């Protein structure tokens, strides 16, 4: 039975692992280092996780589910009145920047170029592209736009803006959401669908 | 005096170095490896370069001068009739994708996250942002656009599109130039400046 004290140990192990994975890479981080940094024992680690790999999978699964809320936001654009599309897109981008900025260690881990990180990235690109293609069939998005190419641009830009502005504290999620949301929305929308 | 044979050796050393730097990183590549891969001797290397560092500087200086032709293209937008802006921007993006695609090793080296690569990237972002700010003062670019933020997005997108489409041979420079050029131009332009 996992007690409250057990939950606290588990959280400490996760926080320790996230910090080390982000700083040194997953490969270079050992279970001994994770437990030492958390002030716990190897036995404590293996009470909660089968292996480092299982822990990484759990961390990224959770992160992915939280990301899905934002990457799937384009799905509902077709149901909105034209004047509300821009607000919806800006809010979605701002929410995404907030999630990534509140979880900078997980963001760094996911973007580290590991196989799992690449899969996560490809999945995000696909979801954004699928929703964009759907909005294209509804004539919201310009017909000559290539959804996958634009989705790749969006993901690359979001990554860069998080490193450049969120991790340095130079801009907040709302400022980035407004700029990136408008930039990409105006870049892909059919003219008559934009407010002004 | 450097003979034609000397020039050929120098070119072989440069090609060998570019390939190894791109594949293994600058730090992990030694002069011995560069000369072995080129089928030459250490003596040949030191005939043309003082050190590995000097060679890296020369490679990136040359690359930077060639990149400048494209990153500075926004400077002349204000002189163009409105209808020609889009063509000019598309041609510029296509030229940039062609240069990066024709020099994939140098592109990888420049983007490797070395100090010099970071400087090069920052310089490109600044040039694009400066020209965008100038075009904003001419009312070509929308007033609320933040030039540096958009320039960061442009550079991040170009990098990603090169890796994803040019290095895999999936799309050519013209296709990418058209898509990226239109995406970012429409994202930042004042409405009345776009053709249709």
From TrEMBL, chains A, B:
This is TetR/AcrR family transcriptional regulator. Keywords: DNA-binding. It comes from Paenibacillus hemerocallicola. Residues 7-67 form the HTH tetR-type domain. Pfam families: TetR_N (PF00440). SUPFAM superfamilies: Homeodomain-like. The keyword Kinase does not apply. Residues 30-49 bind DNA.
């Amino acid at each position: 039975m996992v007690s409250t004290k057990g939950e606290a140990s588990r959280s400490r192990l996760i926080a320790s692992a996230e910090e080390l994975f982000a700083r040194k890479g997953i490969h270079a981080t050992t279970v001994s280092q994770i437990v030492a940094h958390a002030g716990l024992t190897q036995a404590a680690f293996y009470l909660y996780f089968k292996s480092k790999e299982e822990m990484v999978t759990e961390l990224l699964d959770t992160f992915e589910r939280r990301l899905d809320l934002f990457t799937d936001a384009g799905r509902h654009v077709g149901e909105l009145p034209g004047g509300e599309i821009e607000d919806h897109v800006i809010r979605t981008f701002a929410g995404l920047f907030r999630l990534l900025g509140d979880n900078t260690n997980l963001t760094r881990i996911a973007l580290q170029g590991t196989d799992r990180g690449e899969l996560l990235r490809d999945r995000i690109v696909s979801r954004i592209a699928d929703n964009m293609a759907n909005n294209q069939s509804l004539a919201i998005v310009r017909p000559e736009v290539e959804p996958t190419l634009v989705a790749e641009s969006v993901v690359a830009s979001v990554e860069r803006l998080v490193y450049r502005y969120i991790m340095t504290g130079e801009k907040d999620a709302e400022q980035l959401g407004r700029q990136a949301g408008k930039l990409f929305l105006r870049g892909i929308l059919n003219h008559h669908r934009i407010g002004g």
